[in-house]
Amino acid sequence: MYLLALKMLLGDRAKYIMLVGGLTFSSLLMTQQNGVFQGLLSWTTSHMRNMRASIWVVESRVEQVNETKALRDTDVNRVRSVDGVDFAVPLFQGVMKARAADGSDKQVQLIGLHGGTLYGRPAVMVDGDISQLRVPNTVVVDELAAQPTRLGAGLGRSLKVGDTFEINDREARVVGICKTERHFFGYPYVFTSYDQALQYAPRQRKMLSMILAEPKPGIPAEEVARRIAAETGMKAYTVPEFERSTVAWIWRNTGIPASFMTTIILGFVVGVAVSGQTFYSFVLENLKNLGALKAMGAGNGLLAGMLLFQAITVGVIGYGLGLGLTALFGLAVAQSGQPPFKLVPLYLVQTFGAVLVICVLAALFGIRKVARLEPAIVFRG
Amino acid sequence: MTPTASPHADGAVRVRGVIKTFGVGDAKTVALKGIDFSAAEGELHLVVGPSGCGKTTLLSVVAGTLDWDEGDVSVFGTRLDGMGKGAVTRFRRSNIGFIFQQFNLIPTLTLVENVSVPLLLNGAGRRTAEEKAAQLLKQVGLEGRGNKRPTQLSGGQQQRVAIARALVHEPRLLICDEPTSALDSATGHQIMDILSGVARAPGRCVIIVTHDPRTYRYADRITEMEDGRVTRVLDGAALGEFVSMTH
């Protein structure tokens, strides 16, 4: 009977296409928007993945990695003195204006790494040698910064090792090109030594942005972070803790999650409305046939099962198509990285669950009608 | 007129004192007013009467597709009153075949699939059901057309498919609602010939609700109704006289 139920639905092409179309659109909206949202959330913590430090020590009011409140230079030594800390280094980070060859100003995320260790350096160098940062007035830029539309402007090509540009009227000579994950604010990365960064940045009373620390071998980072916080009064985060804190901050303080959630919920509502209405009209048009089946001895349970089977089948097809279109979108934006996009398997499963809920709700409208249907209806003209 | 005593009173279908009302308060309508009715095995029994007299309601009660308020109904010795809805549905599924005025074939299914529905409902496998359905289609003169859809057939052919569907699971009682009213005269007679043959099979009974006087001559018995009551039951000579008068 379930196969016949499917044939009944497939035979009504218009309704079938409408149902699959509605569910495809709904799945697309939910998965694509979720993908962009997850991509955006991933950007908020990309800074940590680019720097790869174990413990991040920040001013006590800092809650997320993209925020800086300057520390005193002496705070580095206070952290170094905490039991369990293998080493701790200063980090400068700030948004600066850099001047390209054509005279245009471009904003960049300037990172000043400890010159001795270069702890926090990017993982992948595309060209050049990062150890050259120990030479004065040198920088390593990421591929985004090197683009002809960014710091390569005026050169008619991407920046190369040996090219120069200016940061706050000071020369910056490129000694390397690296790969990074895109920063939440969208600024390209320019790495230099901590001392050099202080030369590039406008002078302020306190210049130390953060302290990066490494625990001694065998001591958990969580334990060392707890000790640093207790002994210095600063906040010390491990990477997972800082990621959670950053994402939580975004949820609390920006309209981004609400905006995406609204669209995702809208996708769900559109799915329920379109498929519910279409399915209900399919049931109404087949009421006589369903009545005949009921008269012939089909119970309410069997008919409900048939309607659910029909609804879930179109749900699976619609979800598959929606997911396919989302994947195509992902492929299309993968090259440029804009907008950010990340498909998280757990959320795909959740979206599939949401589509199934839509199908069950859509079927329920019809099941309710069929359950109340008197089989005697077939004898009335 | 008083109903005549039936020689088949202990037969296939027995209805005693059935009352059925629709609506409540001012909108209350009594469709069946304590009706008695019976049909015997091997009988083609017509229920006739003007529109709104309660024929279809009686048919629905006998078929177990409509609850009634008072009275007893038994079909082949099984009392339907007091049975749960699920039990009535199961009984109907295996013991009753239906032929509807508008055929009620599912347009998106092939003829074989339509005819196999009662067997599938009774738990038969798909292959078995379709083989049996093809046999029945052959019996009603539609051999080789099993893969067509109902919309590709004429009204008479569709009604033949409906007959095949009604008979495929070998029910003992066949319930027919105006089976010829949507058909031309010649096709109507062909359908009645088939139903007449079905009724003669041992252990089977055919009840037809109809307005169509062309069908009267096929009847073994006719129950005439008016205003929710049986006004007379005709068989034997009285039936012959009635048929010749209405022709």
Give the CATH H-level superfamily of chain B: P-loop containing nucleotide triphosphate hydrolases
- The class by helix and strand makeup of chain B works out as alpha/beta
Strand content of chain B: 15-25%
Using the alpha-carbon principal axes, give the shape of chain B. Answer: globular
For the termini of chain B, the CA-CA separation is 22 Å
- What's the order of the H and E elements of chain B? EEEHEEHEHHHEHEEEH
Total domains of chain B? 1
**Widest β-sheet, arrangement of strands of chain A:** 2-3-8-5-7-6
Strand arrangement in the largest pleated sheet of chain B: 6-7-8-3-9-10
Proportion in helices of chain A: 40-55%
Write the layout of secondary structure elements.
The complex is a heterodimer of chains A (about 375) and B (about 250).
Chain A: H1 2-11, H2 13-44, H3 46-51, E1 55-58, H4 75-80, E2 85-99, E3 105-113, E4 124-128, E5 138-142, H5 143-146, E6 164-167, E7 170-179, E8 189-193, H6 194-200, E9 210-215, H7 221-232, E10 235-238, H8 239-253, H9 256-285, H10 287-295, H11 300-334, H12 345-371
Helix pairs in contact in A: 1-11, 2-9, 2-11, 2-12, 9-12, 11-12
Chain B: E1 13-22, E2 29-39, E3 43-48, H1 55-63, E4 70-75, E5 78-79, H2 85-95, E6 96-99, H3 111-121, H4 126-139, H5 155-167, E7 173-177, H6 185-200, E8 205-209, E9 221-226, E10 229-234, H7 236-246
Parallel strand pairs in B: 3-8, 3-9, 6-7, 7-8
Antiparallel strand pairs in B: 1-2, 1-4, 4-5, 9-10
What does this structure look like?
- The complex is a heterodimer of chains A (381) and B (247).
- Chain A is α+β, with helices and mostly antiparallel strands and 381 residues long.
- Chain A contains 12 helices and 10 strands.
- Chain A has helices at residues 2-11, 13-44, 46-51, 75-80, 143-146, 194-200, 221-232, 239-253, 256-285, 287-295, 300-334, 345-371; strands spanning 55-58, 85-99, 105-113, 124-128, 138-142, 164-167, 170-179, 189-193, 210-215, 235-238.
- Chain A has a 6-stranded mixed barrel with strand order 2-3-8-5-7-6.
- In chain A, strand 2 and strand 3 form a beta hairpin.
- By secondary structure, chain B is α/β, with parallel strands linked by helices.
- In chain B, the strands form 2 sheets. Chain B has a 6-stranded mixed β-sheet. Chain B has a 4-stranded antiparallel β-sheet with strand order 2-1-4-5, with helices on one face.
- In chain B, a hairpin with a 6-residue loop joins strand 1 and strand 2.
- Chain B is globular, with a radius of gyration of 18 Å.
- The model of chain B is unreliable at 1-9 (pLDDT under 50).
- The chains are: A alpha+beta (381), B alpha/beta (247).
- Chains A and B meet through helix 1 and helix 10 of A and helix 1, helix 2 and helix 3 of B.
